[in-house]
Amino acid sequence: MKQKNSIGVVETKYYTFAAKEGLRLSSGRSLGPVTLAYETYGQLNPDRSNAILITHALSGDAHAAGYHTGDDTPGWWEEMIGPGKAFDTNRYFVICSNVIGGCKGSTGPASVDPATGKPYALDFPVITVADMVEAQKHLIDHLCIDELLSVAGGSMGGMQALQWAAFYPERVLSVIPIATALKHSPQQIAFDEVIRQSIMADPAWREGDYYDDGQPERGLAVARMIGHITFMSDQSMEEKFSRKLKNGGYSFRFAADFEVENYLHYRGDNFVKRFDANSYLYITKAMDYFDLSGGRLFPEGKPAKTRFLVISFKSDWLYPSHQSQDIVRLLKRRHADASYCELPSTYGHDAFLVETEGQTALIGPFLEKTAALNKKAEIYEI
Predict the structure, then answer these.
(1) Lower Cβ count inside 10 Å, N or C end of the chain?
(2) Is 138 annotated in the active site?
(3) Of residues 150, 155, 315, 321, which has the active-site annotation?
(4) Catalytic residue among 88, 202, 349, 350
(5) What is the pLDDT of residue 382?
(6) What digits encode the pLDDT tens for the residues 317-330?
(7) In this structure, which long-range contacts are made by residues 169-172, counting pairs with CB atoms below 8 Å and at least 24 apart in sequence?
(8) Residues 202, 276, 288, 316: which is the catalytic one?
Protein backbone atom coordinates (compact mmCIF):
# COMPACT_ATOMS: atom_id res chain seq x y z
CA MET A 1 0.00 0.00 0.00
CA LYS A 2 1.41 3.36 -1.02
CA GLN A 3 2.29 5.87 1.70
CA LYS A 4 0.37 9.09 2.27
CA ASN A 5 1.94 12.17 0.63
CA SER A 6 4.25 10.03 -1.46
CA ILE A 7 5.91 11.58 -4.47
CA GLY A 8 4.51 8.63 -6.42
CA VAL A 9 6.24 6.80 -9.25
CA VAL A 10 9.91 7.58 -9.74
CA GLU A 11 12.58 6.39 -12.14
CA THR A 12 16.23 5.56 -11.52
CA LYS A 13 18.59 7.41 -13.86
CA TYR A 14 22.24 6.75 -14.70
CA TYR A 15 25.18 9.05 -15.28
CA THR A 16 28.48 7.76 -16.71
CA PHE A 17 31.70 9.75 -16.60
CA ALA A 18 35.52 9.37 -16.48
CA ALA A 19 35.49 7.10 -19.54
CA LYS A 20 38.91 8.25 -20.73
CA GLU A 21 40.82 9.77 -17.84
CA GLY A 22 39.32 7.67 -15.02
CA LEU A 23 38.34 8.78 -11.53
CA ARG A 24 41.47 9.23 -9.41
CA LEU A 25 40.99 7.37 -6.11
CA SER A 26 42.48 7.78 -2.64
CA SER A 27 44.52 4.62 -3.20
CA GLY A 28 46.28 6.22 -6.18
CA ARG A 29 44.49 4.00 -8.66
CA SER A 30 42.04 5.21 -11.31
CA LEU A 31 38.60 3.84 -12.04
CA GLY A 32 36.73 4.41 -15.27
CA PRO A 33 34.30 4.58 -16.76
CA VAL A 34 32.19 5.22 -13.66
CA THR A 35 28.41 4.97 -13.62
CA LEU A 36 26.25 6.38 -10.82
CA ALA A 37 22.63 5.35 -10.38
CA TYR A 38 20.58 8.24 -9.01
CA GLU A 39 17.05 9.49 -8.47
CA THR A 40 15.65 13.01 -8.11
CA TYR A 41 12.49 14.23 -6.42
CA GLY A 42 10.84 17.63 -6.70
CA GLN A 43 11.96 20.39 -9.06
CA LEU A 44 15.09 22.48 -9.29
CA ASN A 45 14.19 26.15 -8.95
CA PRO A 46 15.25 28.74 -11.55
CA ASP A 47 18.42 29.84 -9.74
CA ARG A 48 19.29 26.22 -8.86
CA SER A 49 19.58 27.02 -5.16
CA ASN A 50 17.17 24.47 -3.63
CA ALA A 51 19.09 21.22 -4.19
CA ILE A 52 19.60 18.75 -1.34
CA LEU A 53 21.79 15.65 -1.62
CA ILE A 54 20.69 12.62 0.41
CA THR A 55 23.46 10.11 1.11
CA HIS A 56 22.66 6.51 1.99
CA ALA A 57 23.93 4.02 4.57
CA LEU A 58 25.85 0.77 4.04
CA SER A 59 23.17 -1.30 2.33
CA GLY A 60 21.14 1.58 0.90
CA ASP A 61 20.77 2.70 -2.70
CA ALA A 62 19.54 5.54 -4.88
CA HIS A 63 15.87 4.66 -4.32
CA ALA A 64 15.24 6.86 -1.28
CA ALA A 65 11.60 7.79 -1.90
CA GLY A 66 8.58 7.05 -4.06
CA TYR A 67 7.80 3.84 -5.93
CA HIS A 68 9.10 2.13 -8.99
CA THR A 69 6.56 1.05 -11.58
CA GLY A 70 5.03 -2.30 -10.64
CA ASP A 71 6.63 -2.35 -7.17
CA ASP A 72 4.80 -1.50 -3.93
CA THR A 73 8.03 -1.23 -1.93
CA PRO A 74 8.75 2.44 -1.16
CA GLY A 75 12.18 4.07 -1.06
CA TRP A 76 14.21 3.53 2.09
CA TRP A 77 13.51 7.07 3.47
CA GLU A 78 9.96 7.39 2.17
CA GLU A 79 8.70 8.90 5.43
CA MET A 80 11.26 11.70 5.22
CA ILE A 81 11.17 12.73 1.55
CA GLY A 82 8.06 14.00 -0.18
CA PRO A 83 5.40 16.73 -0.12
CA GLY A 84 5.22 18.34 3.33
CA LYS A 85 7.84 16.00 4.81
CA ALA A 86 11.23 16.82 6.35
CA PHE A 87 12.79 17.07 2.89
CA ASP A 88 9.78 18.78 1.36
CA THR A 89 9.64 18.14 -2.38
CA ASN A 90 7.21 21.06 -2.74
CA ARG A 91 10.17 23.24 -1.82
CA TYR A 92 13.37 21.33 -2.49
CA PHE A 93 15.01 19.38 -5.29
CA VAL A 94 16.22 16.19 -3.64
CA ILE A 95 18.93 13.95 -5.12
CA CYS A 96 20.08 10.51 -3.99
CA SER A 97 22.73 8.39 -5.71
CA ASN A 98 24.06 4.89 -5.12
CA VAL A 99 27.71 5.00 -4.00
CA ILE A 100 30.56 3.65 -6.09
CA GLY A 101 31.46 0.20 -4.81
CA GLY A 102 27.75 -0.54 -4.46
CA CYS A 103 25.65 -3.04 -6.33
CA LYS A 104 22.44 -1.16 -7.09
CA GLY A 105 23.32 0.41 -10.42
CA SER A 106 26.57 2.22 -9.64
CA THR A 107 29.99 0.89 -10.62
CA GLY A 108 31.19 -1.73 -8.16
CA PRO A 109 32.93 -5.11 -7.93
CA ALA A 110 30.05 -6.84 -9.74
CA SER A 111 30.35 -4.42 -12.69
CA VAL A 112 32.07 -5.49 -15.89
CA ASP A 113 35.72 -4.50 -16.10
CA PRO A 114 36.15 -3.08 -19.64
CA ALA A 115 39.71 -4.41 -19.70
CA THR A 116 38.64 -8.05 -19.28
CA GLY A 117 34.96 -8.19 -20.17
CA LYS A 118 34.33 -9.92 -16.81
CA PRO A 119 33.15 -8.66 -13.40
CA TYR A 120 35.86 -6.78 -11.52
CA ALA A 121 35.51 -8.95 -8.40
CA LEU A 122 38.61 -8.29 -6.24
CA ASP A 123 40.31 -6.45 -9.12
CA PHE A 124 37.99 -3.59 -8.21
CA PRO A 125 40.08 -0.96 -6.38
CA VAL A 126 39.59 -0.42 -2.66
CA ILE A 127 37.54 2.74 -2.22
CA THR A 128 37.02 5.30 0.52
CA VAL A 129 34.18 7.56 1.61
CA ALA A 130 36.18 10.38 0.03
CA ASP A 131 36.04 8.52 -3.30
CA MET A 132 32.27 8.16 -2.95
CA VAL A 133 31.95 11.91 -2.44
CA GLU A 134 34.27 12.71 -5.34
CA ALA A 135 32.03 10.63 -7.61
CA GLN A 136 28.93 12.42 -6.27
CA LYS A 137 30.58 15.74 -7.01
CA HIS A 138 30.80 14.73 -10.68
CA LEU A 139 27.06 14.02 -10.63
CA ILE A 140 26.26 17.38 -9.01
CA ASP A 141 28.39 19.09 -11.66
CA HIS A 142 26.51 17.16 -14.35
CA LEU A 143 23.23 18.50 -12.92
CA CYS A 144 24.70 22.04 -13.18
CA ILE A 145 24.32 22.71 -9.45
CA ASP A 146 27.04 24.99 -8.07
CA GLU A 147 25.90 24.98 -4.45
CA LEU A 148 23.93 22.48 -2.41
CA LEU A 149 21.45 23.76 0.15
CA SER A 150 22.25 20.70 2.25
CA VAL A 151 23.82 17.25 2.34
CA ALA A 152 22.10 14.84 4.74
CA GLY A 153 22.37 11.19 5.67
CA GLY A 154 22.53 8.67 8.48
CA SER A 155 25.27 6.22 9.46
CA MET A 156 27.62 5.92 6.45
CA GLY A 157 25.45 8.60 4.86
CA GLY A 158 26.46 10.92 7.69
CA MET A 159 30.10 10.18 6.92
CA GLN A 160 29.57 11.23 3.32
CA ALA A 161 27.82 14.41 4.48
CA LEU A 162 30.80 15.29 6.71
CA GLN A 163 33.20 14.49 3.86
CA TRP A 164 31.34 16.94 1.63
CA ALA A 165 31.88 19.64 4.25
CA ALA A 166 35.58 18.76 4.45
CA PHE A 167 36.18 18.64 0.69
CA TYR A 168 33.78 21.25 -0.68
CA PRO A 169 32.68 23.68 2.07
CA GLU A 170 32.22 26.40 -0.53
CA ARG A 171 29.61 24.25 -2.26
CA VAL A 172 27.62 23.10 0.78
CA LEU A 173 25.49 25.53 2.77
CA SER A 174 24.52 22.99 5.43
CA VAL A 175 25.17 19.43 6.53
CA ILE A 176 22.94 17.07 8.52
CA PRO A 177 24.97 14.12 9.84
CA ILE A 178 22.72 11.63 11.65
CA ALA A 179 23.78 8.72 13.89
CA THR A 180 27.36 8.81 12.65
CA ALA A 181 30.95 9.51 13.69
CA LEU A 182 34.14 11.33 12.71
CA LYS A 183 35.89 7.97 12.59
CA HIS A 184 35.23 4.33 13.38
CA SER A 185 36.14 3.17 16.88
CA PRO A 186 38.07 -0.08 17.41
CA GLN A 187 34.77 -1.76 18.31
CA GLN A 188 33.13 -0.63 15.05
CA ILE A 189 36.15 -1.81 13.05
CA ALA A 190 36.02 -5.13 14.92
CA PHE A 191 32.38 -5.72 13.99
CA ASP A 192 33.15 -4.95 10.34
CA GLU A 193 36.08 -7.36 10.33
CA VAL A 194 33.93 -10.18 11.76
CA ILE A 195 31.35 -9.40 9.07
CA ARG A 196 33.99 -9.56 6.34
CA GLN A 197 35.50 -12.76 7.69
CA SER A 198 32.10 -14.44 7.76
CA ILE A 199 31.76 -13.76 4.04
CA MET A 200 35.30 -14.77 3.13
CA ALA A 201 35.07 -17.99 5.19
CA ASP A 202 32.27 -19.28 2.97
CA PRO A 203 33.84 -21.69 0.43
CA ALA A 204 31.47 -20.27 -2.20
CA TRP A 205 33.22 -16.91 -1.94
CA ARG A 206 36.03 -18.28 -4.14
CA GLU A 207 38.38 -15.36 -3.37
CA GLY A 208 35.70 -13.01 -4.70
CA ASP A 209 35.45 -14.73 -8.08
CA TYR A 210 31.98 -16.24 -7.63
CA TYR A 211 29.92 -14.47 -10.28
CA ASP A 212 29.62 -17.51 -12.56
CA ASP A 213 28.79 -19.84 -9.68
CA GLY A 214 26.53 -17.88 -7.35
CA GLN A 215 26.96 -15.82 -4.19
CA PRO A 216 28.48 -17.04 -0.92
CA GLU A 217 24.96 -17.01 0.46
CA ARG A 218 25.58 -18.46 3.91
CA GLY A 219 28.50 -16.19 4.62
CA LEU A 220 26.66 -13.09 3.45
CA ALA A 221 23.53 -14.09 5.39
CA VAL A 222 25.57 -14.49 8.59
CA ALA A 223 27.23 -11.13 7.93
CA ARG A 224 23.83 -9.48 7.72
CA MET A 225 22.63 -11.27 10.84
CA ILE A 226 25.57 -9.79 12.73
CA GLY A 227 24.75 -6.39 11.29
CA HIS A 228 21.11 -6.55 12.38
CA ILE A 229 22.12 -7.32 15.96
CA THR A 230 24.15 -4.10 16.02
CA PHE A 231 21.34 -2.07 14.42
CA MET A 232 18.84 -2.84 17.20
CA SER A 233 18.92 -2.06 20.91
CA ASP A 234 18.49 -4.46 23.82
CA GLN A 235 15.18 -2.80 24.65
CA SER A 236 13.83 -2.98 21.10
CA MET A 237 14.76 -6.66 20.87
CA GLU A 238 13.06 -7.34 24.20
CA GLU A 239 9.91 -5.51 23.10
CA LYS A 240 9.84 -7.19 19.69
CA PHE A 241 10.90 -10.74 20.58
CA SER A 242 11.57 -11.26 24.28
CA ARG A 243 12.04 -15.04 24.66
CA LYS A 244 9.12 -15.98 22.43
CA LEU A 245 9.40 -19.44 20.95
CA LYS A 246 8.73 -20.06 17.28
CA ASN A 247 6.76 -23.29 17.78
CA GLY A 248 5.74 -22.98 21.42
CA GLY A 249 8.48 -25.17 22.84
CA TYR A 250 12.09 -26.28 22.60
CA SER A 251 13.06 -28.55 19.70
CA PHE A 252 16.09 -29.95 21.54
CA ARG A 253 17.94 -29.58 18.24
CA PHE A 254 20.20 -26.85 16.88
CA ALA A 255 17.28 -25.17 15.20
CA ALA A 256 15.87 -21.63 15.32
CA ASP A 257 13.67 -22.17 18.40
CA PHE A 258 13.36 -18.51 19.35
CA GLU A 259 11.55 -15.83 17.38
CA VAL A 260 14.66 -13.64 17.42
CA GLU A 261 16.65 -16.44 15.77
CA ASN A 262 13.96 -16.88 13.14
CA TYR A 263 13.97 -13.13 12.48
CA LEU A 264 17.73 -13.03 11.97
CA HIS A 265 17.60 -15.98 9.55
CA TYR A 266 14.80 -14.27 7.64
CA ARG A 267 16.70 -10.99 7.36
CA GLY A 268 19.91 -12.74 6.32
CA ASP A 269 18.24 -14.94 3.71
CA ASN A 270 16.43 -11.99 2.15
CA PHE A 271 19.53 -9.82 2.08
CA VAL A 272 21.45 -12.23 -0.17
CA LYS A 273 18.74 -11.77 -2.81
CA ARG A 274 19.45 -8.06 -3.19
CA PHE A 275 23.05 -7.35 -2.24
CA ASP A 276 26.46 -8.37 -3.57
CA ALA A 277 28.87 -9.95 -1.07
CA ASN A 278 31.94 -8.21 -2.50
CA SER A 279 30.19 -4.83 -2.23
CA TYR A 280 29.65 -5.55 1.45
CA LEU A 281 33.39 -6.12 1.85
CA TYR A 282 34.37 -2.96 -0.02
CA ILE A 283 31.87 -0.66 1.65
CA THR A 284 32.64 -1.79 5.20
CA LYS A 285 36.34 -1.26 4.48
CA ALA A 286 35.60 2.26 3.24
CA MET A 287 33.77 2.99 6.49
CA ASP A 288 36.71 1.70 8.54
CA TYR A 289 39.14 3.92 6.62
CA PHE A 290 37.01 7.02 7.20
CA ASP A 291 38.66 9.49 9.58
CA LEU A 292 37.88 13.22 9.81
CA SER A 293 39.07 13.62 13.38
CA GLY A 294 41.57 16.27 14.43
CA GLY A 295 42.12 18.86 11.73
CA ARG A 296 40.80 16.75 8.87
CA LEU A 297 37.23 18.09 8.93
CA PHE A 298 38.29 21.73 9.03
CA PRO A 299 42.02 22.32 8.54
CA GLU A 300 43.52 25.21 10.47
CA GLY A 301 43.07 28.52 8.71
CA LYS A 302 40.06 27.29 6.73
CA PRO A 303 36.85 29.09 7.79
CA ALA A 304 33.93 26.90 8.85
CA LYS A 305 31.04 28.56 7.03
CA THR A 306 28.84 25.50 6.60
CA ARG A 307 25.89 25.14 9.02
CA PHE A 308 25.48 21.83 10.85
CA LEU A 309 22.61 19.96 12.44
CA VAL A 310 23.96 16.88 14.23
CA ILE A 311 21.44 14.26 15.40
CA SER A 312 21.95 11.14 17.51
CA PHE A 313 19.67 8.65 19.27
CA LYS A 314 19.81 7.70 22.91
CA SER A 315 19.62 3.91 22.40
CA ASP A 316 22.09 3.74 19.50
CA TRP A 317 25.02 1.72 20.82
CA LEU A 318 26.58 1.10 17.39
CA TYR A 319 27.11 4.85 16.81
CA PRO A 320 26.64 6.13 20.36
CA SER A 321 25.77 9.74 21.09
CA HIS A 322 29.24 10.56 22.39
CA GLN A 323 30.55 10.17 18.83
CA SER A 324 28.06 12.78 17.60
CA GLN A 325 29.03 14.98 20.53
CA ASP A 326 32.66 14.68 19.41
CA ILE A 327 31.59 16.14 16.06
CA VAL A 328 29.82 19.03 17.76
CA ARG A 329 32.77 19.79 20.06
CA LEU A 330 35.10 19.93 17.07
CA LEU A 331 32.70 22.24 15.23
CA LYS A 332 32.30 24.53 18.22
CA ARG A 333 36.08 24.82 18.58
CA ARG A 334 36.11 26.11 15.01
CA HIS A 335 33.22 28.50 15.80
CA ALA A 336 30.95 26.77 13.29
CA ASP A 337 27.18 27.25 13.31
CA ALA A 338 26.32 23.86 14.82
CA SER A 339 23.20 22.54 16.53
CA TYR A 340 22.90 19.17 18.23
CA CYS A 341 20.03 17.02 19.45
CA GLU A 342 19.93 13.56 21.00
CA LEU A 343 16.50 12.12 20.28
CA PRO A 344 14.88 9.60 22.63
CA SER A 345 14.31 6.25 20.97
CA THR A 346 14.32 2.54 21.75
CA TYR A 347 15.15 1.50 18.19
CA GLY A 348 18.94 1.63 18.43
CA HIS A 349 20.86 2.53 15.28
CA ASP A 350 17.79 1.81 13.14
CA ALA A 351 16.19 4.89 14.69
CA PHE A 352 17.42 7.17 11.90
CA LEU A 353 15.23 5.16 9.50
CA VAL A 354 12.11 4.96 11.67
CA GLU A 355 12.04 7.90 14.09
CA THR A 356 10.79 10.27 11.42
CA GLU A 357 8.61 12.56 13.54
CA GLY A 358 11.42 13.79 15.77
CA GLN A 359 13.82 14.22 12.87
CA THR A 360 11.23 16.11 10.83
CA ALA A 361 10.67 18.57 13.69
CA LEU A 362 14.39 19.37 13.64
CA ILE A 363 15.22 19.18 9.94
CA GLY A 364 12.30 21.15 8.52
CA PRO A 365 13.04 24.41 10.41
CA PHE A 366 16.80 23.94 9.97
CA LEU A 367 16.45 23.79 6.18
CA GLU A 368 14.10 26.79 6.15
CA LYS A 369 16.58 28.88 8.13
CA THR A 370 19.46 27.75 5.92
CA ALA A 371 17.53 28.85 2.84
CA ALA A 372 16.64 32.17 4.47
CA LEU A 373 20.29 32.84 5.31
CA ASN A 374 21.28 32.19 1.72
CA LYS A 375 20.78 35.47 -0.08
CA LYS A 376 20.60 33.74 -3.45
CA ALA A 377 17.97 31.24 -2.36
CA GLU A 378 14.30 31.60 -3.05
CA ILE A 379 11.94 28.84 -2.01
CA TYR A 380 9.41 28.17 -4.71
CA GLU A 381 6.23 26.33 -3.78
CA ILE A 382 5.82 23.88 -6.66
Answers:
(1) N
(2) no
(3) 155
(4) 349
(5) 37
(6) 999 999 999 999 99
(7) 169/298, 169/302, 169/303, 169/304, 169/305, 169/306, 170/305, 171/137, 171/140, 171/146, 171/147, 172/147, 172/148, 172/306
(8) 316
Indicate the pLDDT class of residue 303, thresholds 50, 70 and 90: low
Mean pLDDT score of the chain, rounded to an integer? 95
**202: domain CATH number?**
1.10.1740.110
For residue 267, how many other CB atoms are within 10 A of its CB? 15
CA separation for the pair 358, 308 (Å, rounded):
17
Cα separations in angstroms, 205 against 109, 114, 212, 316: 13, 23, 11, 32
Same domain, 54 and 111: yes
Averaged over 293-320, what is the pLDDT? 89
| 202 and 57 in a common domain | no
Has 316 been annotated as catalytic?
Answer: yes
Domain that holds residue 239: 189-286
**DSSP string computed for 198-214:** HHHTSGGGGGG--TTT-
Count of domains for the chain: 2
The yes-or-no answer on residue 155 being catalytic is: yes
Model-level pTM greater than 0.85?
yes
Rounded Cα distance, 60 and 254, in Å: 33
